[in-house]
Amino acid sequence: MKLKDSTAIVTGAAGGIGAALARRFLTEGARVVITDLDASRLHTQAERLRGRYGQRVAELAGNAADTQVIEALVELAETRFGPVELYAANAGVGAGRGLESSEDDWHLSLEVNLMAHVRAAKVLVPQWVERGRGYFLSTASAAGLLTQIGSPTYAASKHAAVAFSEWLSVTYGDRGVRVSCLCPMGVDTDLLRSGGHDSVQMRAVTTAGRVLTTDEVAEVVMAGIDAERFLILPHAEVLDMWRQKTTDYDRWLRGMRRYQQTLLDDQKD
């Protein structure tokens, strides 16, 4: 897919990976609608982007998991720029730690990390099938292929996001709908830093591989979209980890338990 003169929507775009994706898409010549729950940060980001890219940027604050917000984003994009050709379901949360995760933590994680994708697909995929083209970019996580030490809510919801992306591709891939699933490890974002520098969850990510900048991730995403590749892995080593997991599940689980214990022991020192 080529993005020049296309129309894209990016959720979770007030900062982090979402903001980097919006910049990258605009650099390619796309027209972009950005959205985020934080209206103030979103407006600041939109003004920054308009200062560089002009009126090819529009904004609408709201909850990316709300169907009415999704429909409003699509309407805004169509009114300002034309039919939506790319939807980047990027908004994500990291609520919940261990079995102490509350029902609210589980609900929020599944709403934002999974159902936001499902509801966006419900709105857009029928249009794309009718037009014969469309692109769905799901930001999941390496946790969706492997796991997330410390957070069952994150691990489960990201696994579900990967599974939904797979299903979309299998079901609609021969009907003009392209799907990519972004699965990075550590990326320098507020979501990573919110875990606290000393938390087992954060150190599980930062010690597993290099922490990338958001612009580095966006560059890999652009290459993946150009190639219409399903699995986009900014950390190439994730593929080897996933292969080790699927080749010998029990061995992988034993290794992950040892890794977790090492992190816990380091935390005590």
UniProtKB/TrEMBL annotation:
<dbReference type="InterPro" id="IPR036291">
    <property type="entry name" value="NAD(P)-bd_dom_sf"/>
</dbReference>
<dbReference type="InterPro" id="IPR002347">
    <property type="entry name" value="SDR_fam"/>
</dbReference>
<dbReference type="InterPro" id="IPR020904">
    <property type="entry name" value="Sc_DH/Rdtase_CS"/>
</dbReference>
<keyword id="KW-0560">Oxidoreductase</keyword>
<protein>
    <submittedName>
        <fullName>SDR family oxidoreductase</fullName>
    </submittedName>
</protein>
<comment type="similarity">
    <text>Belongs to the short-chain dehydrogenases/reductases (SDR) family.</text>
</comment>
<dbReference type="Pfam" id="PF00106">
    <property type="entry name" value="adh_short"/>
</dbReference>
<dbReference type="GO" id="GO:0016491">
    <property type="term" value="F:oxidoreductase activity"/>
</dbReference>
